[in-house]
Design goal:
The chain contains twelve helices and twelve strands. Strand 5 and strand 6 (about 125-135) form a beta hairpin. By secondary structure, the protein is α/β, with parallel strands linked by helices.
Length: about 450
């Protein structure tokens, strides 16, 4: 982001999870004047509070928004320019930039740091993420954001101010975790689409952030929250809402916003196999490895991938060091870069014939895990309005995935709104979802009716 400065705070060494307290005051340098945060004096425990690594200020102007990362690793500007060349309007690019420019409303302040949660084995683990607030510290309410699929660790919220920070410029505190496998846990396998563990990790950051925000003068004016996510984040956001409704009824959701999520993993997998074409061919290996790791399936990868692909995707061991050159587990490559390394968008270029046939024996256990982690199987979100968005032209999370659960959502959710249309491919529709969400929150108008 442009026009920011970074200040380094001393990193807190947390020696144990249970009953952990600070033995000395944590020195924190405020943006305007030196300030000490005595976590002990505040009655805060680093085992239950978000602990900042560093802070930065950013100008959320048009240029800053256009430089933010998109789901395939390109910037907003690159995607906007591509959309502009494909639109029937001769001024398509200017239109999109004009809409983005209208969102500019000042500076944001963000904190990258860590918090405690649990790993796939149920053991304590420190995870990382970012909290973004308006610089005037006037926070109306909190938005819990679950980010879209990323490949490179450099795209993780703790390493890069995310696109959703635009909400903070409008007075919302944005809480966005990295997930297991990114940020300070980049050396671990990401349990991709493992709904229960990821939802728990997200809620734990929310709890830690709520202990931290008052310390920096950013206590929200309202107790209810927004829950937001696109793509992988859309499925995670729905899982978070389910988790809160079932286990944390004390947390009230004002609005759940889900965009283009793989709610039915089986339907998504089946359609990608049927089409044998996707902009993210590496998403299928990520699903297989994520569910295998998250649920200890002990799958034989040689049965799922073309010869030599397994090592290129994941490396030679269960964990790859950050210096490894493996396409997925090194966390060095964006989704677009991995696709380029594969050299094809055909699913069959990396998957075995057996993996392309769900009737085979080796697919049985994987499909069971996909069914168990399809958040559409346990719809319990009755207590809040829900806004779903999906493009019929989506080439990563097929529209058929949404069709398979649309009727179920409609029948089982109390206040259900669905926005479906020809909104471009997966990456372009990410912006459309952001546009419509901004207008729902701030003007009660749906921008999709005028674009």
């Amino acid at each position: 982001m442009s026009n920011f400065f970074k200040i380094t705070a001393s990193v807190l060494a947390v020696l144990s999870f249970a009953g952990c307290t600070l033995s000395e005051t944590h020195d924190w340098e405020d943006f305007n004047s030196p300030k000490k945060i005595d976590f002990n004096a505040e009655g805060l425990n680093p085992a239950t509070c978000f602990i900042p690594f560093y802070a930065e200020q950013s100008e959320m102007d048009c240029d800053a928004i256009l430089s933010c990362g998109m789901p395939d690793g390109r910037t907003v500007n690159e995607v906007v320019n591509e959309v502009g060349t494909k639109t029937t309007s001769t001024n398509g690019t200017a239109l999109f930039k004009g809409v983005i420019s209208s969102w500019h409303s000042g500076k944001i302040e963000s904190y990258a740091g860590s918090y405690w949660s649990i790993d796939v084995n149920g053991e304590p683990i420190q995870l990382s993420g970012r909290i973004v607030v308006p610089t005037d510290h006037k926070v109306s309410r909190v938005m819990v954001v679950s980010h879209f699929t990323i490949g490179a660790d450099s795209e993780a919220p703790s390493n890069e101010v995310p696109l959703e920070a635009v909400f903070a410029a409008r007075g919302i505190a944005v809480i966005e975790p990295d997930y297991i496998g990114y940020g300070i846990t980049r050396h671990l396998i990401h349990p991709y689409l493992c709904s229960e563990i990821t939802s728990k990790n997200v809620v734990d950051m929310y709890d830690a952030a709520m202990n931290f925000l008052p310390v920096v003068g950013c206590k929200p004016e309202n107790d209810d929250i927004f829950v937001y996510g696109f793509s992988q984040g859309g499925a995670v956001a729905l899982g978070v809402a389910q988790y809160l409704e079932e286990k944390r009824p004390d947390v009230k959701i004002r609005l759940l916003l889900c965009g283009s999520g793989p709610y039915d993993i089986c339907a998504t997998y089946d359609k990608l196999i049927e089409n044998d074409l996707t902009d993210y061919p590496c998403a299928i290996p990520m699903i297989i490895q994520g569910l295998d790791n998250g649920y200890h399936l002990d799958l034989d990868y040689s049965k799922f991938f073309q010869k030599g692909i397994q090592e290129k995707m994941f490396g030679s061991g269960p964990y790859c060091s950050p210096s490894s050159d493996s396409w997925i587990n090194s966390k060095n490559y964006t989704m677009a870069e991995i696709t380029s390394l594969i050299g094809s968008k055909k699913v069959s270029s990396i998957m075995s014939e057996e993996a392309m046939n769900k009737a085979t024996d080796n697919m049985t256990e994987l499909y069971r895990a996909m069914v168990d982690n399809s958040v559409s199987n346990g719809i319990v979100v009755h207590s809040c309005p829900v806004y779903f968005f999906h493009s019929m032209d989506d080439n990563v999370v097929p529209y058929e995935n949404f069709q398979s659960v649309d009727e179920k959502f409609y029948n089982e959710m109390a206040n259900y709104t669905c926005n479906v249309g020809h909104y471009g491919n997966h990456v372009a529709s990410c912006l459309r979802f952001l546009y419509s969400s901004m207008n729902l929150l701030y003007s009660n108008k749906d921008i999709d009716r005028v674009l």
